[in-house]
Amino acid sequence: MLRSSPSIVIVSAIRFSASPAPGQPVPVMLSIVTGALQFVVWLTLLLVLLSAGGVNITAFVASLGVGGIAVALALQNILGDLFASISIGLDKPFEPGDFIGFDGDSGTVTHIGIKSTRIASLGGEELSIANAKLLEKLTHNYSRMRERRVAFGFTVPYATTREQLREIVERSNATIAATPSVRFDRGHLTAFGDWGFTFEFVYYVLDSDYSRYRDIQQDINDEIVGIVQGAGAAFATPAPNASR
Predict the structure, then answer these.
(1) pLDDT at 61
(2) CA 162, chain centre distance (Å)
């Protein structure tokens, strides 16, 4: 009858008990914990065998401590990335499959390793960044966005009448509020701009999908064009050769 070694038993138990819930994988933590436990188990077995063989392991253990400090000093950057990967596994600011952005770059996380994180960018290339450096940056996790705030505006000429301005605001507000998957916030005549009266509208798209947001904004823009034209007004354009 075959007998399982202690390391195999412990590693199997870790894999079973540390199995992530559906949708919450933690491959980094599993690999780190598994490797660390295997090292500790085999090192313990080695010390036990040496002690049973009559070897004085006190000096050996002391030398391991000194050697460990020397190795830690020599591998500061690697250990920093290792602990950063542990932090990512525990805190989960992002996970494989999430779309994130940082320092002007953005893409989908494909792999979180012990040393670095790999990201498939929108341009098609693969980005690789050390875990410790990535945690130092302001990271935007767009996959966890529940809704998207949208603010936009336009300008009509100063020749637009008071009645036309009111009609544009009221009809635009009603149109945005009636748009599916949208929560209307506000819409006002906000300023006297360089070329005319300036409007600002704010709403929330109740969906994180970027393409969905662009479709909604396109439909709203199309409706506003009709509203402005229907009110007998026009969009303001800079006067040619005008200087500020």
Answers:
(1) 61
(2) 45
Whether the CB-CB separation of 181 and 212 falls below 8 Å is answered with yes
Nearest-angstrom CA–CA distance, 184 and 205: 9
The Cα–Cα gap between 140 and 103 comes to 10
pLDDT in tens, 22-61: 445 455 555 656 666 676 676 677 766 766 766 666 666 6
Whether the per-residue pLDDT at 116 is higher than 50: the answer is yes
Domains, the chain, in order of start with CATH, read 6-74 (no CATH), 92-142 (2.30.30.60), 148-230 (3.30.70.100)
Evaluate whether 197 touches 156 at the Cβ level (below 8 Å).
Answer: yes
Cα(155)–Cα(163) distance, integer angstroms: 16
Euclidean distance between CA atoms 172 and 136, whole angstroms: 43
